[in-house]
Amino acid sequence: STAGFDTATMKIKYCPIEGGNFGDTLNTMVWDRLFPDLTQRKEGILVYGIGTLLDGRHDKSLKKIVLGSGLGEANAALQDPNWDFRWVRGPLSAHGFGLSADLALGDPAVLWPELQSGCGGTPNGPIGLIPHYRTWDSFDWVTVATNAGMVAINPRQSPTDVMAQTRACSRILAESLHGAICAYAMAIPWAPCILAHRFNTFKWLDWLATINRDFSPLVADRPLVRSISKPKALANRLARLVRYKAHTRHPFLRATACATQEDAQRVSEALARYARNDSHFACSRPSDVDRQRQRMLAACDSFATEYGLAFTP
């Protein structure tokens, strides 16, 4: 939506999440540093940055510049002459817009300076569990993680706090896409996990294709929620029955009742079993991450030159 958008300025377009989500908040920490005078430009332009922002709901009359955003699902691309694609999150997003796969450079979160020191985590540290922010709200993941011998990392914290806790881990199990991206950028071994129905397979496959990594997540066998209304439980039963959005989401993980203590224990046991297998976790090579980052910085440089912006890589 462009409600309240000042058509006389250039603005970063991102999705601010009520209560916080560190992946989206990264937009406030990356772009101002790279383009310090961007918001002072007197042109009605939207700049799409970190996140799944290309959802088919856009103002066709406005100029839109894309610096690494991605689609949320197939067939959501909205064609109009006012797009200026510098790069997109991955090849599925590029295909949706009919772009060359050469523009599928990856997720721009890797441009955040705090991820560029590289660290490899803490070899003797715990395994960190980073749920999706809405999964985090639904249950007591601190206890679930503790019972699995892990440490839960709250994705609603600031990016700096999430990264400090991630660095203290030896490995990361991430349902949060940006939890995985940050572990990848810091050369910490990581693996994906699916804990709730809202997990978006499409956007993961889009990004994973840019780092040549297979998708073989841990998938919980049951959802965990503290509470659920009768109408919501009924709606979820129906969604399971018709396999609503089964091509990108996970309808069988829609809750139809509150989780029991036994349910929580079973999920903890599954997490612990999965984490014991070292082959589930893979680590990036810093040189590969840097190569990806340099291609993005070249695209940023070109964008800044063309639009007369200061650029401070």
Structure characterization notes:
- The chain is an alpha/beta fold and 313 residues long.
- It has helices at 22-25, 27-34, 91-96, 133-138, 141-147, 159-167, 177-185, 201-208, 230-241, 261-275, 286-307; strands at 10-13, 45-48, 63-67, 83-87, 127-130, 150-152, 171-174, 190-194, 218-219.
- It is built from eleven helices and nine strands.
- The strands form two sheets. Strands 6-5-7-8-9 form a five-stranded parallel β-sheet, sandwiched between helices. Strands 1-2-3-4 form a four-stranded parallel β-sheet.
- Helix 5 crosses helix 10.
- It is globular.
- Residues 1-6 have low confidence and may be disordered.
Characterize this entry briefly.
With 313 residues, this protein is an alpha/beta fold. It is built from 11 helices and 9 strands.
